[in-house]
Amino acid sequence: MVGRVLTRRYRLEERVGHGGMAEVFRATDLLLSRAVAVKVLLPQFASDEEFVERFRREAQAAASLSHPNVVNIFDVGEEDGTYFIVMEYVRGRTLREVLHERGPLPVGEALEIAAQVAGALAAAHSQGLVHRDVKPPNILIAASGQVKVTDFGIARATSASSLTHTGTVLGSVSYVSPEQARGAEVTGLSDLYSLGASLYEMLTGQIPFRGETAVAVALKHLQADPTRPRRLRPEIPEDVEALVLRLLSKDPERRARSTLALKEELESLARRYDLEEPTRLLQRAGLGAEGGGDHEDAGEGEGVGGRVPRWVLAAGLVLAVTLGGLLGARALAGLLFPPEVVVPSVRGESLEAARLKLEAADLRLEEGPGLPSSEVPAGHVISQDPAPERHVRAGRTVRVVVSKGPEVVTVPAVEGRALREARLDLNERGLKVGRVEERFAPEVPPGQVLAQDPPADTNLVKGALVDLVVSRGGAGATVVLPDFGGMTFSQAEQRLADLGLQLGEATGREGPAPLGEILEQKPGPGARVPQGSVVDLVYSTGSQDVGPPAPATVTPEAEVAQGALKTRVTVQVPEGPAQEVLVVLIDDRGAREVHRAYHPGGSRVEVPVEAKGASPLVQVYLDGSMIQELALR
């Protein structure tokens, strides 16, 4: 796509991002000679009328908004089946990139970003539009510091009665509201929950809920309470923590009176926690404006109610005059009104180096509670408040968070566990599976872990590898290979597992056979191989003449028997590397997995489903990201 010119006007220069439905390019508007961003609908969705309509609806929804914190929409078009939207190009970074680089943000800065996002959402909500996917990757921070909200790709008009939530792409599960997770009606208050989850991450460096699967995370949004932010970062003010927890309430009505009211509350808190110390010192000395407001941290000389006695003010005035005579007017001005200095960056510096660097800039260092970090060495600075390049008064204190070094975890015992269960146990501790060696073990079922290195109860750095030895079954056990030709890929994969064999290399080949059908196998049919052997498969990727199918569909002919609905869900895996396909059924019996397996790119997966209830739903995930939600009735 790079180098292509759309409608003889927009030249695609560089791919800068992608989402669930589209790719984003930096482009040049040849007519107006300006940089723009062009969002191009992915080819596998371009032939689907529903997706195309949703894509157009995105442009209409966002184009109707005019707000400094919303990315502007300039144009929408189509050329040779390629649908695209032309948007304002924001020179800066996403909030996700900022958090990855800096870790937890200073409290005032996080509140200021959240306030600007709330301003964008207030503008959208006033027009009946719900964003539905508020998360750090969709929040842009311009070089000027201005915040821009983008990707109204799954926004919809709350007043539109002809559209329902079924069949629409949902937001990232780490930030999804409880009502979205259960498939209920979504309102502007759902956006506030997602904003609360994003603010939680800005303040603590962690998302509110973690889990091994998308379903596990979604269930925590529905049922669990998040860890209080002050337990992760004690310097967070109590009123800020209370606001975050309120936004993460399961009850939408408790989150805020309105989006505009939330914006004003965030702005007020941002001002409060972005005050500069010299100003507060002047207030404590009684040198504020006449009839001034609150005087914080009153000294011993104050009387009842915090008022300073007149004799103290008079003495202070005499002292000021005396100092003026001794030091001169310029020295007195420098004492009362320190000059502004630029805060240097001390991130990554050792604590002592950071202290010297700040003292050289006429600033003071205050060390906050340490945090574990696998990226910043122990004793070095992770983050600072105020942020670098801020202009502050000389003498101000800069608070820093210092790394405790990598987090250490204990290796669990996985011997005797199935390989998949061992992988989940290790992932739960923050560890990864390293080298997997197979050995014949006549008395141990194939796929069961025989040994692990390092052994259980060893302390490792989080993210370290654990090597496993897995049983191949008995050395004498052999299997006669069936003919996999004509089977679907998922059928062949299941048959291999039933025979105690493993899938080796899966290769796609274009041809007239149906998409995903097995064309060849190695070793061939009838070959006798040891149990646990690897079998390579070649499958059909279909013909180029056939348009790409929808990512997931429901078989129209559904059987209803004894109140249960029996049908099949067909999932199309996009071209490219193999991906994990997860199908979740939500009905009167709750939410549960009905299929989870890796399938090669381009394959077609059929999953039988039996549901109960009046309005069962199916959610389809690819590599942990929800791509579609389908109504079965």
From TrEMBL:
<protein>
    <recommendedName>
        <fullName>non-specific serine/threonine protein kinase</fullName>
        <ecNumber>2.7.11.1</ecNumber>
    </recommendedName>
</protein>
<feature type="domain" description="PASTA">
    <location>
        <begin position="405"/>
        <end position="472"/>
    </location>
</feature>
<dbReference type="InterPro" id="IPR000719">
    <property type="entry name" value="Prot_kinase_dom"/>
</dbReference>
<dbReference type="GO" id="GO:0005524">
    <property type="term" value="F:ATP binding"/>
</dbReference>
<keyword id="KW-0418">Kinase</keyword>
<dbReference type="Pfam" id="PF03793">
    <property type="entry name" value="PASTA"/>
</dbReference>
<feature type="domain" description="PASTA">
    <location>
        <begin position="476"/>
        <end position="541"/>
    </location>
</feature>
<dbReference type="Pfam" id="PF00069">
    <property type="entry name" value="Pkinase"/>
</dbReference>
<dbReference type="InterPro" id="IPR017441">
    <property type="entry name" value="Protein_kinase_ATP_BS"/>
</dbReference>
<dbReference type="InterPro" id="IPR011009">
    <property type="entry name" value="Kinase-like_dom_sf"/>
</dbReference>
<dbReference type="InterPro" id="IPR008271">
    <property type="entry name" value="Ser/Thr_kinase_AS"/>
</dbReference>
<feature type="domain" description="Protein kinase">
    <location>
        <begin position="10"/>
        <end position="269"/>
    </location>
</feature>
<keyword id="KW-0547">Nucleotide-binding</keyword>
<feature type="domain" description="PASTA">
    <location>
        <begin position="337"/>
        <end position="404"/>
    </location>
</feature>
<keyword id="KW-0723">Serine/threonine-protein kinase</keyword>
<keyword id="KW-0067">ATP-binding</keyword>
<feature type="binding site">
    <location>
        <position position="39"/>
    </location>
    <ligand>
        <name>ATP</name>
    </ligand>
</feature>
<dbReference type="GO" id="GO:0004674">
    <property type="term" value="F:protein serine/threonine kinase activity"/>
</dbReference>
<dbReference type="InterPro" id="IPR005543">
    <property type="entry name" value="PASTA_dom"/>
</dbReference>
<keyword id="KW-0808">Transferase</keyword>
